[in-house]
Amino acid sequence: MTDTQTQRRPVIVGGDALRIADVVDVARHGAPVEIGPTALDAVRATRATIEALANDTVAHYGVSTGFGALATRHIPVDLRAQLQRSLIRSHAAGAGPEVEREVVRALMLLRIATLATGRTGVRDSTLAAYVALLNAGITPVVHEYGSLGCSGDLAPLSHCALALMGEGPVRDADGTLMEAGDALGAAGITPVELAEKEGLALINGTDGMLGMLCLAIADLRRLVTTADISAAMSVEGLLGTDDVFAADLQALRPQPGQARSAENMRKVLAESPIRDSHRDPEACTRVQDAYSLRCAPQVAGGVRDTVDHAARVAEWELAAAIDNPVVTVDGRVESNGNFHGAPVAYVLDFLAIVAADLASMSERRTDRFLDKARSNGLPPFLADDPGVDSGLMIAQYTQAAMVSEMKRLAVPASVDSIPSSAMQEDHVSMGWSAARKLRRSVDALSRVVAIELVAAARGLQLRAPLAASPASAAVIAALAETVRVDPGPDRFLAPDLDAAHEAVVSGTVVAAAETVTGPLH
What we know:
Layout: H1 3-6, E1 11-13, H2 20-29, E2 33-35, H3 39-54, H4 80-91, E3 95-98, H5 101-115, H6 124-135, E4 139-140, E5 143-145, H7 154-164, E6 169-171, E7 177-179, H8 180-187, H9 198-203, H10 207-237, H11 247-251, H12 256-269, H13 273-276, H14 291-294, H15 296-318, E8 326-327, E9 333-334, H16 342-370, H17 393-409, H18 431-461, H19 470-480, H20 494-505, H21 508-517
Parallel strand pairs: 1-2
Antiparallel strand pairs: 3-5, 4-6, 6-7, 8-9
């Protein structure tokens, strides 16, 4: 067990449904996992049902038959252990780069949670071994490609099951690549010899796509708040008005996310000397700001409401017990289609759409800062000596490249389907693919918003001697600890953008603003 694990509360499986925060705690922060006190009783009871079927002369899918299109073959008792091993070995067929450690840990936790429901028929010893594998920080190597998001995330989950058998490559708690047998031995874990039904139970779930959905929801909730901060700073730096964010105007369109984003922006803009400098309607001839300023709460609010919808879908899925066949509460063993990833795939695609739009608006605000015709008196590209210096010119290029990529990533994966398994699996969700592209989109969004923050911070300082709002000043001060945000001659820009990105993803930006505003939505 790592030091991080010992500092965090354990996550209990087999009791109440997991929460999104539980998934993040285990996947990212190494929180330990424990089996709930009543879970093992349910697991043992269901296992007894499966063992009673093992000697039945009637074929039972997953117990005494082949799989998928090969389910018509009845497997004799002496070949059933081989059947389970063969299932895992053959289905561990992923290809391409390794996926991230946090994704594999989330996937493992969610499969453990389903096993702990007592609906899958695994032995309690198999469940305990899987928990031990996760708690030891052993991460099976899972690859980018292999899941169609139907019949579960078969290939990714099979690579994890293979490690549980003591086979295949893994990374230990320190990230060292080694064989699973060696890693299990070092951790004192005995490899599992799978019994009837267990191979199928270990791989037939939506755990990979659901794990990535939970992680994306956590990230997007932080990012949309950060985007509210950056939008408010841009409104301030571009001499826009906060009048349009008034609560009574927002209430005329009672979208809940919009109201929360507008409130955030009002808090950040409060007591701004820059804003106060152009409140006189006779001195300020601008009637309306551009949409990227005026409509920021409408777009960010739509993102918020979409994330909330995705969270509801994730919570329903976290309460699920997905396997096929499944052992019902009254002891029946029934085939079903609950492994189809469509509900999760749809919201993964939806999130990629709103992330792209939020980034698109952020990039447009940055571009306004850099254009002397639209920045209301700021130097071209916020450069120290325009012509000698290029300022943030190419930072906007980088934003534009990422936004363009995000628009491509917003093309839904869930509308595609390629039949598989000799047409037995003739419609699939592509939910894993939707999740993989969403992760790239979320990363790009965090970088796009970071660049806007750098531009806004520099633009606000160029308004001197007028001062920024107290909240904006706090964000600028926090950024300045690692980023050069003050105007000055050009220097190597990439490290500053990387440092600003780290300030976004670590929560530093939100925390800095909240020292002035109090809690933001």
